[in-house]
Design goal:
329 residues, single chain, 15 helices, four-stranded parallel β-sheet, Rossmann fold, alpha/beta
Length: 329
């Protein structure tokens, strides 16, 4: 068995791009019975690559792109999304979802929970949630990191009730976006594209009935590193290809590894690949330059997230089976 290196993530991008495009054509026409595809784009690498593959499959005239910013979205996200859409020649529609989110209490409920954890939090502050503990082999704990208008940083422990309320409130963002995606899909007789990469799909880094809802997920089998590679192969603008992965959910800039993953995405890709291929933790430790105990902790963190997010992958559970429905009769 050869040494574990990042080379294991190398793929034939030309062949894979053609294979995905072919499957998208088949799925759209024969499985979904739809005329085209809707893709919500954030300017991030996953939605950008998904849009490009949809265009490769169906052509720009049968792909509709949505840009759906809100109060906490980075201005640069919308700029990158616009650059991408122009590059690919797809029609776009931009809808500011902030008024809808405010109307249903997203921001008010979120801020109420933040103030319970940090009473000084007020207008003009920015914040994010960070994760702590998993990569050291401890139970994951969440912390609230906030920045006041003067630029001072405040870091406090986040209680379970406050954490759950903040997450529940911010999940409105993904669910409102998905509502708009399906509105346009219904209007155009199109299917909806989901944009998770393999790391996000495997580890449950999505909102149920939010960004987790879709008719087809074209890159869910590609590791994040491979998505970057695919984007470069497809010739996407450098502004898009160089984008650093963020959640683009909280007002303070937040990396995905701060909020959810045990390691930066490239190292997480290798760890997930190694676990999937039953490579010993000692090999991962050598490849990443960490000790074996930490590598074991990373493996356990992956397994734990698979267990705790299994619910997100499940469809509704029926009390009794309906075999005639499953047969399509």
């Amino acid at each position: 068995m050869s040494a574990l290196t990042y080379d294991v993530l190398d793929i034939d991008y030309a062949g894979e791009a053609d294979r995905i495009a072919g499957r998208l054509r088949e799925i759209t026409a024969r499985t979904l019975h739809r005329r085209g595809l809707v893709v919500a784009i954030s300017g991030g690498i996953d939605s950008s690559c998904s849009l490009a593959l949809a265009v490769r499959a169906l052509g720009p005239q049968r792909v509709h792109a949505l840009i759906l910013p809100e109060r906490d979205s980075s201005d640069d996200s919308a700029v990158r999304a616009g650059i991408l859409a122009d590059h690919l020649g797809v029609r776009t529609e931009t809808v500011d979802i902030a008024p809808a989110l405010a109307a249903i209490g997203c921001y008010a409920a979120r801020d109420d929970a933040v103030r319970r954890a940090l009473p000084a939090y007020a207008e003009g502050w920015r914040f994010k949630i960070v994760i702590d503990g998993g990569i050291e082999g401890r139970i994951n704990q969440f912390r609230l990191v906030a920045e006041d208008p003067a630029g001072a940083t405040h870091d406090v422990a986040l209680g379970l009730s406050e954490y759950l309320q903040i997450v529940a409130a911010t999940n409105f963002k993904q669910r409102i976006r998905k509502t708009l995606e399906y509105y346009h899909a219904d209007r155009l007789n199109y299917g909806v594209v989901g944009t998770p990469n393999r790391l996000e799909y495997d580890q449950g880094f999505f909102v149920k009935n939010g960004d987790g809802a879709a008719d087809v997920k074209p890159i869910a089998h590609l590791y994040k590193s491979q998505v970057y590679g695919m984007a470069r192969f497809l010739g996407l603008p450098e502004r898009v290809c160089a984008a650093i992965p963020t959640t683009d959910t909280y007002s303070l800039s937040q990396g995905q590894d701060e909020f959810y993953f045990a390691l930066p995405y490239r190292a997480m890709d290798l760890a997930l690949w190694a676990l999937n291929h039953e490579r010993p933790a000692a090999e991962l430790a050598t490849a990443l330059g960490i000790d074996v105990a930490r590598a074991e902790a990373v493996y356990e963190d992956i397994r734990n997230k698979r267990r705790t997010t299994a619910y997100l992958h499940r469809s509704a559970v029926l009390v009794d089976p309906t075999p005639e429905r499953e047969r399509g009769a």
